[in-house]
Specification:
Number of helices: 14
Number of domains: 3
Structural class: alpha/beta
Strand order of the largest sheet: 6-7-5-8-9-10
Order of helices and strands: EEEEHHHHHHEHEEHEHEHEHHHH
Radius of gyration: 29 Å
Bound molecules: guanosine-5'-triphosphate, magnesium ion
Length: 422
């Protein structure tokens, strides 16, 4: 498959060797580099050979065909990472970080996934699981040998449990912090109807995605789209304009706007500067005090009707920006201010943040529930063998994260989401 120049037949391991790749019919296809990595010093801990060729459509295909003709087969989706997991080179949380790394849509997501691959989540979950296993072993010794082993006092058990719960809550908090970086900071555009929210949403995304009309109440549903901004990932949400009254459908839309406000991480209030402060925005006053808030005073081309002093009094604004979005160039200062607001919204998220996927999150929550149940049982003075059931289940749930306690079906499901051969 790969013919090396000269006659040296020795493939010195872990060195790139130049050579020529030959097609199935022995034609030269490409100049390549090939490396042989004998196990265990390889990704999967098995013997691995790699051929590094030029990209494009035809060349890799021809080289693959040649490899298959010489007895190789194409890898299944995720097969290399699955093998790395089965050989103990990576635990399951690390293996899933490979997928998170490939799918990372922002610099933050990529950094958190790389930390996961280096064991950030595995170390914390592994240490906690080990602590619980030791506790279980002590407890079981107590059941087996009765009085020979001093019984654990409820106080001691309470202390161990408190430490474990604190550890688990720390991991869950890290996962929450990481979520913003991975899924994107929820950035919600709100304001009265017809102020120009959808105009701004379209301009920020650089696409005419939302309907824009002169009729107040055009947007009814939440529109959500990811947006990359200076290495940050935002989820940009356009919402129905808020005002008192409105028809049944419009009221449903406004209810969704209010829900979006409840979990907003950055707020962009769009106001029509030609009209006085509108009614129906009371909720914004409270949200602006806890979330970085950018206020866009749109429609500066029209005669002024809004008292800016009143806006500053009512909203706790990170920045107040007068603009006229009829001119698309005027979105640039808004974009810059949004980046600043988003940075301040994501500050403090970085320390301790973890990349945790849905499966891992659910397992962690289950572990926490069993520890809480154990805490309840301890307080009620339940017998030790009953309490140990919850302790065992918490250990199993943590083992699902790192892969000690997973079924073949779960593994199959996880690795089938990988791209071919990764
Ligand atoms: N004069 C003027 N009109 C603008 C400006 N920006 C947007 N508009 C117009 O204002 C109207 C409403 O804009 P939208 O972006 O649909 O407003 P919205 O806030 O999404 O409105 P709802 O979806 O009804 O809540 C449209 O006709 C826009 O073209 C501006 O700076 N000046
Ligand atoms: Mg709209």
């Amino acid at each position: 498959m790969v013919r090396r120049p000269g006659s040296d037949p020795v493939w010195e391991p872990h060195r790139l060797h130049p050579g020529l790749a030959l097609s199935a019919s022995d034609q030269v296809v490409d100049e390549v580099l090939a490396v042989f990595m004998p196990g265990p010093r390889s990704y999967t801990r098995e013997d691995v050979a790699e051929i590094h060729c030029h990209g494009g459509l035809a060349v890799p295909g021809l080289i693959l065909d040649s490899c298959v003709m010489h007895g190789a087969r194409l890898a299944e989706p995720g097969e290399f990472t699955l093998r790395a997991f089965l050989s103990g080179r990576l635990d399951l949380a690390q293996a899933e970080s490979v997928l998170a790394l490939i799918q990372a849509g922002s610099a933050t997501a990529a950094r958190l996934a790389a930390e996961g691959l280096h064991g950030a989540l595995s170390r914390q979950v592994g240490a906690l699981r080990l602590e619980l296993l030791e506790w279980l072993a002590d407890w079981e010794a107590e059941f087996d040998f009765g009085e020979e082993v001093p019984a654990m006092s409820p106080d001691q058990a309470g202390l161990r449990l408190e430490r474990a719960l604190r550890g688990l809550q720390g991991i869950l908090a890290g996962a929450e912090e990481g979520r913003g970086g991975i899924e994107g900071l929820r950035t919600v555009l709100v304001g009265p109807p017809n102020a120009g929210k959808s105009t701004l949403w379209n301009l920020l995304l650089g696409e005419e995605r939302a309907l824009v009309t002169p009729h107040p109440g055009t947007t009814r549903d939440l529109l959500e789209h990811p947006m990359r901004l200076g290495g940050l990932c935002l989820r940009l949400v356009d919402s129905a304009g808020l005002r008192p009254g409105g028809g049944a459908v419009e009221r449903l839309g406004m209810e969704r706007s209010r829900q979006a406000l409840a979990d907003a991480e950055v707020l962009v209030v769009v106001l029509d500067s030609s009209r006085p402060w509108p009614r129906g925005l009371e909720m914004l006053e409270e949200v602006s005090r806890r979330v970085p808030t950018l206020v866009v005073l749109n429609k500066q081309d029209l005669p002024a009707g809004l008292d800016v002093g009143e806006v500053e009094e009512r909203l706790s604004a990170f920045r107040v920006l007068p603009t006229c979005l009829l001119n698309p160039e005027q979105v640039q200062p808004v974009r810059e201010a949004l980046l600043e607001a988003a940075r301040s919204g994501s500050a403090g998220r970085t320390a301790g943040a973890l990349s945790v996927n849905r499966r891992q999150w659910q397992a962690l929550v289950r572990a926490a529930e069993h520890l809480e149940a154990l805490a309840g049982g301890l307080q009620e003075g339940m017998p030790g063998d009953c309490l140990a059931v919850d302790l065992r289940q918490a250990i199993t749930a943590l083992g699902e994260v790192t892969g000690e306690d997973v079924t073949e079906q779960v593994l199959e499901q996880i690795f089938s989401r990988f791209c071919l051969g990764k």
